Amino acid sequence: MTTASLRLALVGAPNTGKTSLFNSLTGSRQKVANYPGVTVERKSGGFVTPEGRSVTVLDLPGTYSLRGRSPDEEITRDIVLGRFDGEAVPDLVLCVADATNLRLTLRLVLELKRVGRPMMLVLNMIDIARRRGVTIDLERMSQELGLPIVTSVAVRKGGVDELLKRTDEFLARSHEAAASQWTTPTIADLKAAQREADRIIAAAVTLPTKPDTLTNRIDSVVLHPVGGLVILAVILFVMFQAVFTWAQPAMELLSDGFSALGQLIHDVMPEGWGLLQSFLQNGLISGVGSVIVFLPQIIIIFLFILLLEDFGYMARAAFLMDRIMGGAGLHGRAFIPLLSSFACAIPGIMATRVIDNRRDRLTTILIAPLMTCSARIPVYTLIISAFVPATTVWGFVNLQGLVMFGLYAAGITSALTVSAVAKFFLWRDHAPAPFMLELPDYKMPRLKSIAIGVFTRAKMFLYRAGTTILSMMVLIWFLASFPTAPAGAEGPAINYSFAAMIGHALEPLLRPIGFNWQIAVALIPGMAAREVAVAALGTVYSIEGGKEAADQIGQVLAQKWTLATALSLLVWYIFAPQCASTLAVIRRETGGAKWMVVTFIYMLALAYVASFLTFNLAQALGLH
Amino acid sequence: MTGDPNSSQDNLQDIRLGHADRGFVGKIIRLDALVTGSSLSPQELEQRLVEMGFVEGARVEILHEGTIRRDPIAVRVDNITIALRRSEAMAVIVE
Ligand SMILES: Nc1nc2c(ncn2[C@@H]2O[C@H](COP(=O)(O)OP(=O)(O)OP(=O)(O)O)[C@@H](O)[C@H]2O)c(=O)[nH]1
Ligand SMILES: [Mg+2]
Question: Which residues cross the membrane (chain A) (predicted)?
Fold first, then answer.
């Protein structure tokens, strides 16, 4: 036994369960979902085998070949070939295959053998294979391939025990790595390897007489040329209605709770502690509290997205949307990154690594921040609840939910438009690469992984509230409280503060789009994260209004803003680049500041123009 | 396999997968990526199709088609399902 830890790498075709294995080996919670191309980064973790060997394991992006045609596949290739900077070649390659779908992975296995690293084949999802009546002659297959084979069920407790045992046995012996004979396979090589893989499958695998038709039956409804699009629209529609109606009771509870807490602080604080009281009540409760209130909505939207991802619907949605996306000049694989951007643009931008062509990838990165991310939900909800009545239209539709749906639709439409325009002006001669995607079999979403997923997102949201948002709030509260008003001054004390000075300085710029100085102040810390604007407005108005106004920010806005201003701010948030982390990721993923600056400027320009038009139109229509 | 597109002495029963209708079941005879509407080079297109399992002898079936111009299509290739556009499927000659 050596002291240095041994290095394993998980390699395999997309969607075979590599990340699930990684999670169950190391106890991590990396993202798992039922579509190809979930993992786009190298992730490292460690564990100790039953016999006490300490092992480092790498989770890698899925790939059909070591050719490395897109940035994510290059990572896998470079690790396997030992070309990755700062990473030694793996001591053991665990090649992960989906036992129900061996053709493409076995061809990859044959290619990997040429690299010469010690290797073991893991037949994962053996539970599904057994249920369907697929029988695999492991001995025969192992003989044909010249490799040890183990089976596993990555998502079940104890499902990797055999893998652990065999890894120990494997590592106990010493293994000579052969010199790599790998060269980029030609088409003829690939075909020969595929024929060989098919021969081995024919020799070792018996398929059931009655194939699985459930996926096919679901697909004939879900991918129906007309019905499929209707179902997609209904799913999105229900999602946004749910964000409003289901979350309502929980949100009211939270918001009442924070009000009561504020009142309590107000009541029990001794006189003379005015400053601390103001900080707790205005900065913390009206600020950070006003963001935390949106937790139920965040949970609901993630619940929907995770369920769809785990079920296997995402690849179908990409199929349905392909022609529309292609019409806007987008690459066939742009859909899933854009859909992930509904949660947050950052993983969405990372997911564009599956796109092989650089221009196509850039276009997708440019428009990803226009998709309505979950951080916009607090802003939208706040304004919608304050200005749109919660009436029912057409008998069953919640009007607030409908407006929300409209905002999402506006985000999508503008993203497609920007893409079409970018293609037209920048890359007119460039035809986007085609759509080619494996449609995985449907899987029953697993309660535990959904629960973990939702919990992780909720924790992240609260963590942000406790860090970024909290620190911004301290700043805002300070700026809005100091300097204090001179003795005998008239009007609210905040009018003499730094915040008012900054706000008034910016106001002339923003007056044409209907923003007052309070909004101007909220937009600057709102660059840190979109929700901060909500918290900042909460703090500013609560300090301005004094104690009695400290409770419901929505009611305050309804009194202080005209409808034209509210609409203008909604439109601003569709477009404005109000997220520093997204800009930073764009910079990292495009390898320079240029595209970050381009994104920032175009989004800012769009936001200003659109808000200007909205505000003036609304005013002309007399919406006060 | 003929490399020259002009000498297409295709068997009358041979059709391009990109032209086939929903419900079509057949077998791949060969790949010919020279004359398709794809934006990829013939070499690259053929390589990708092979990587996705489109090789001679594989059984193919068109399971579903999209809304606009019945594009894209979902094709069962042996026992996996691949979604692709008709313009790329043109490179697959089936019988
Ligand atoms: N029933 C069953 N499902 C599994 C098993 N392993 C993985 N899955 C499911 O298969 C899907 C894909 O799993 P992932 O771990 O994301 O696959 P991956 O290989 O990391 O995929 P990429 O990162 O896209 O290459 C998920 O829906 C998992 O829940 C298994 O052993 N049994
Ligand atoms: Mg993965």
Answer: 226-247, 284-308, 334-356, 377-397, 403-426, 461-480, 563-585, 597-618
Nearest chain B CA: its distance from A435 CA (Å):
5
Residue in this structure with the two tokens 């309070």, named with its chain if needed: A518
Instruction: Determine, for residues A319 and B83 on separate chains, whether the beta-carbon distance falls below 8 Å.
Output: yes
Q: Are residues A421 and A291 part of one domain?
A: yes
Q: Furthest-apart CA pair in chain A: how many Å?
A: 94
Cα(A31) to ligand 1 centroid in Å equals 10
DSSP state at residue A101: B
CATH of domain B5-94: 2.30.30.90
Averaged pLDDT for residues A445-473? 87
For residue A76, the enclosing domain spans 5-212
Query: How many structural domains is chain A composed of?
Result: 3
Q: Rounded mean pLDDT of A130-156?
A: 93
Chain A residues 421-440 with a CB less than 8 Å from chain B? 431-439
Cα angle, residue A366 at apex, residues A19 and A36 outer, rounded to 5° = 25
Q: Which residues contact A41 (CB under 8 A, 6 or more apart)?
A: A61, A72, A75, A350
CA angle in degrees (0–180, nearest 5) for A117-B48-A64: 30
Task: Name the DSSP class of A525.
Answer: G
Is pLDDT above 50 for A1?
no
Phi, psi of A248 (to 5 degrees): -50, -55
Instruction: Kindly give the pairing relationship between strand A149-151 and strand A119-124.
Output: parallel
Q: Which of A103, A211, A435 sits opposite B85 (nearest CB)?
A: A435
Interface test with B, best of A76, A359, A430, A436 (most B CBs within 10 A): A436
With residue B3 as reference, give the H or E element that holds it.
none
| Predicted-complex ipTM score | 0.88
**pLDDT at residue B10, as a whole number:** 52
Is pLDDT larger for residue B69 or for residue A141?
Answer: A141
DSSP state of A270: P
Cα A160 vs. chain centroid, distance in angstroms? 28
Residue A173 has phi, psi (to 5 degrees) of -85, 155
Taking the domains of chain B in order of start, what are their residue ranges?
5-94
C-alpha separations of A495 from A277, A517, A541 in Å: 20, 10, 11
Residue A575 falls inside a structural domain: yes
The minimal CB distance from B53 to the residues A104, A319, A434 is found for A104
Tens of pLDDT, residue by residue over A183-230, are 888 999 999 999 999 999 999 998 876 666 788 899 999 999 999 999
The letter for the amino acid at B61 is: E
CA distance A319 to A227: 13
The domain that contains A169 carries what CATH number? 3.40.50.300
> Which residue among A207, A211, A322 sits closest to B72, beta carbon to beta carbon?
A322
What pLDDT, on a 0 to 100 scale, did the predictor assign at position A489?
66
A348 belongs to a structural domain: yes
Q: Is A201 on the interface with B (CB under 8 A)?
A: no
Ramachandran angles phi, psi of A492, nearest 5°: -60, 145
Buried b / exposed e across A169-199, counting CB within 10 Å, b at 16+? ebbeeeeeeeeeebeebebebbbebbeebbe
Q: Is A332 on the interface with B (CB under 8 A)?
A: yes
In degrees and rounded to multiples of 5, residue B18 shows phi and psi of -65, -20
Handedness of CA A555, A560, A564, A567 (dihedral sign): negative
Structure tokens, A205: 């695998």
Has residue A459 been placed in a domain? no
Average pLDDT over residues B1-17: 58
